[in-house]
Amino acid sequence: MRPPRCLVLAVTSAIISALLSALGPQAAARPYGLVRDPGFEQQNSRTVSGAWQGEGPDYKGIDIGLGYHKTGRNNAFIRTSSRKWNAIKQQVTVKRQTVYYLTGWVRTSGNFTSGYFGARGADGRTIVQKNFGKVVTNGAYQYVQMAFNSGNHTQVTLYAGYIAPGRDSWVQIDDIDLADTPYTNWAGYVVPSSPANAAPRAVTAVWTQPAFTCQDDPSNHVGVWVGLDGLDTSETESLVQVGTHAACRRHDLYPQHRAFWEVIDAGRDSNAQTIPMEVEAGDRISASVVRSSADPTAYILTIDNLDRPEQRRTLTKRASAARSESAEIIVERPTVKPFGATWPRPLNVSFSYVTVDGAPLSSYDTLAMRGRQDDKGIIYAPSPAVTDSGGYSNFTLSSHAG
């Protein structure tokens, strides 16, 4: 995904302008590399071609600009009323004895549970496989992810397909990703639409604004935010987010803290926009993003500094392409040009009153996102033990040696 989750520091109008031009796009998930044409955007006809192939006897192809995609313009599809196996597949070169992370998005007609996403070796034997089918929220894409060791294989075949139930049925496939790192520039928890989770419409959290110095590294930056729809690996993904950003400037002893909002709509980025409110290290910040029931293209963003009176801000923003198929509670290392950015060490961010659609994280299958500062060998990860209290969740994200 190229979710450019860029955050901005507001100090003066001149600095704001300079930072907005300096902040660049930042992938929020593992980068592409092994899968060719991962979003089917290079497909120029209804016939599956290029790196992708069809498997099985029945009707399959490419939807081009028909609005059935997860992101971009295109997606692959299979449609049949037989009882036979059909799939979309691609052969990928891998390294031996290496752990890989396979992810993708599928949407189904909802009348079968015999869909399978996975990888097999050159000998045709399945290495890893996950089941998909009926999703909790009808019509939503569902996220499927797994890890596997390549063993002695140098080639694997990735596939997404299903055994049809003997009546008209279909599956749509988009944004397939394979990478050999579990780390991203995000750390925190994500609730994706899936066979177990409904497509989220609201996310809330309270956190303590992190404190750190700039003495060890003047490029320290960190963003803390909640959002909807940011889990993807496409250059045309969508994301609606609100939160805070702390950034060091050259020669400063301590970072500047600011609130921000940002909307990425099918790859069109508003860039991070400063919200006029007071924020300092140690403040308790409350934030939420809610998709409007009356208008699904409208999102209500709220942020409040609980330790400072009259600081609550509410904004309504539009994202017509956003599907609201994931919810995020995230600490992020943003991209800052031309100097780059690093996560502070040590870093601890305590989250409380976390809900997705009004329920605690324990109500969902969650993804724990982890980040890594490679040059320092530091891992940034949420606590694996999420505690619930009064219908809310609490967890701490912290740094430790990798």
Could you describe the 3D structure shown?
With 402 residues, this protein is mostly beta strands. The chain contains one helix and 27 strands. The chain has one helix spanning 13-22; strands at 53-55, 60-64, 74-80, 85-93, 99-108, 115-121, 126-132, 142-149, 155-163, 169-179, 183-184, 186-192, 202-208, 221-228, 239-247, 256-265, 268-269, 273-275, 284-291, 298-305, 313-318, 326-332, 348-356, 367-373, 378-382, 387-389, 392-401. The longest helix has 10 residues, at 13-22. It is globular.
- Kindly report the average pLDDT value: 89
Number of strands: 27
What does the main sheet amount to? 17 strands, mixed
Query: Which regions contain 5 or more consecutive residues with pLDDT less than 50?
Result: 1-31
Secondary structure layout plus pairing:
Blueprint: H1 13-22, E1 53-55, E2 60-64, E3 74-80, E4 85-93, E5 99-108, E6 115-121, E7 126-132, E8 142-149, E9 155-163, E10 169-179, E11 183-184, E12 186-192, E13 202-208, E14 221-228, E15 239-247, E16 256-265, E17 268-269, E18 273-275, E19 284-291, E20 298-305, E21 313-318, E22 326-332, E23 348-356, E24 367-373, E25 378-382, E26 387-389, E27 392-401
